[in-house]
Amino acid sequence: MAKIINVIKGTKDILPQDIDTWQFMEQQALEVFNRYGYKEIRTPIIEATELFARGVGDTTDIVNKEMYTFEKSEKSITLRPENTAGVVRSFIENGMTRQTFPVKLWYKGPMFRYERPQAGRQRQFHQVGCEMFGIKEPSADAEVILTAASYLKSLGLDNLTVEVNSLGCPTCREKYKQRIKEVLKPEFENLCEDCQARYEKNPLRLLDCKVESCQKIFEKPEIKSVIYSDFICEDCAEHYSKVKEYLKQAGVVYSENKLLVRGLDYYNRTVFEIKSNNLGSQNAVCGGGRYDSLVENLGGESVPAIGWAMGMERLFSLIQKNPSPKLDGFVVSNYTPYALMLTQELRSKGLCVEFDMQNKKFTKQLEKAAKLAKYAIILGEDEIKNNTVSIKNLETSTQINVKREDVLKTIKG
Questions:
Q1: Parallel, antiparallel, or unpaired for β 103-112 and 353-355?
Q2: How many domains are there within the chain?
Q3: Which of 102, 138, 269, 293 can bridge 242 by disulfide, Cβ–Cβ 3.0-4.6 Å?
Q4: What is the pLDDT of residue 234?
Q5: Residue 237, domain member (yes or no)
């Protein structure tokens, strides 16, 4: 016997018993995002490696540790680890700056990161996300958060927490970085290896560290006072204040988290996460923020932008699973050619119908129908002669004989 080939570590099959839930998530995305004016975009899963090095940032864990990169025809290509950079690349390349702002785009699809597989986190995973281009005002920040909250609500999810923060603009953020470096310098040797590497390249990322020893350092009074200081400039503070005001007016309950910096270098001003209280430590189901310089950094014009992404595997783990819907009908007959013809006829009229291709005994077919369908559509010798069928309601066990042309009306009411 040949050796079985298993699925690659960190990847999973989406099986038939789960596909209804996945299609539900995708259908709700289409409906909710359409209401908010977003149009779907589908970008390639492979992009030039430079796109992520310049867009996501060469100091991030994603670029340094987690990308699937390979050389082909002397060009470095990467399986996309996230999709904002790809959407921005498409926005620039396809001249969307000439469209009327805001330009609203949404996407869904697989992403790839080489990291330790764990619950809700795989090496091939799926994200759904929204990106809005062209609006710098805080009303865009509020609407983007509302879009995410509305989508989660449409999935039947509650017990969620919205966290917000402001990273300020490049000017005020640079001063903040220097203050963090100064106050953490005496603790440098006690920081984890990753934080020591981030100390020079991107000290703001230190605040995103989940290592317990580092978190204890950040809680020291003299360090905590700097981390939690109001460092942002007057313009950024006004922007942030209006975002919070708009969220409050819209009925969004939120909390402020000064340690919320997100893991990507392109964010500025507003950042946010939506967390589920039904998950463990890895409890973020949505993350996003404003990235006003990314379009320009990737070769486009200066266009403000904001967006978010959600991991669909995490959403799947939270959604109430419903049993797969039953077939409309199952044709029970020992006359295979006629059963096939009737099945095809009913399918052409929009019914979901099967028949027994193995032509098993009548009683076996009825047992199968009871498991799979709402109605048994019985086609025996008399029914074939009289151009009728017998329809048995498999919930009530009532049975009636109808003309063949009345089957659709009988089943669908």
A1: unpaired
A2: 3
A3: 138
A4: 92
A5: no
